[in-house]
């Protein structure tokens, strides 16, 4: 990849955004331009542009003479965004069912459920399986969002993901029963969408996202540093 204009800056932004949303850069952590340039194998110019853009998006805070720090959100902020996200993703299910999902989309959702089934068939949470499960989860939610064919709705959901701990990349990978329940939601959502039952799919998605938020909020109240010492994405 050659460093030419916005293409490299955009790629740097995407890479840094992923590092924030997956917890490789934790809330409150100071980010160092030179270190990031080295990690990404890029010059300082596109990294500087990426940092400025991420600050505009609300993922970073800038302090004069001190640089950038990953934005921190209160537990109440996190709960509030989960409430919004659960309603928006439920709406996406309702709209997708109303307009009708393509057979190829439904087949893709089935494939993603099967990936989750295979990962969880071990009967335990294997640490090395987390990245694949997380990718499956992201693809599942994004596939449904795309099938709603509503750019404005997708934009609002994407904005909710700019709160790092609310992103669907966050997986608390330490309780098999919780993960199994969450994945069973995926299975039931797909079944409802296949039947064209948008209200059922919407209710399942709302509970799926809302429950994830309540679980995270409860854990954060018990241990505010939970996500700084646990790999979650």
TrEMBL record:
<keyword id="KW-0804">Transcription</keyword>
<protein>
    <submittedName>
        <fullName>GntR family transcriptional regulator</fullName>
    </submittedName>
</protein>
<keyword id="KW-0805">Transcription regulation</keyword>
<dbReference type="Pfam" id="PF00392">
    <property type="entry name" value="GntR"/>
</dbReference>
<dbReference type="InterPro" id="IPR036390">
    <property type="entry name" value="WH_DNA-bd_sf"/>
</dbReference>
<dbReference type="InterPro" id="IPR000524">
    <property type="entry name" value="Tscrpt_reg_HTH_GntR"/>
</dbReference>
<dbReference type="InterPro" id="IPR011711">
    <property type="entry name" value="GntR_C"/>
</dbReference>
<keyword id="KW-0238">DNA-binding</keyword>
<dbReference type="InterPro" id="IPR008920">
    <property type="entry name" value="TF_FadR/GntR_C"/>
</dbReference>
<dbReference type="Pfam" id="PF07729">
    <property type="entry name" value="FCD"/>
</dbReference>
<dbReference type="InterPro" id="IPR036388">
    <property type="entry name" value="WH-like_DNA-bd_sf"/>
</dbReference>
<feature type="domain" description="HTH gntR-type">
    <location>
        <begin position="6"/>
        <end position="73"/>
    </location>
</feature>
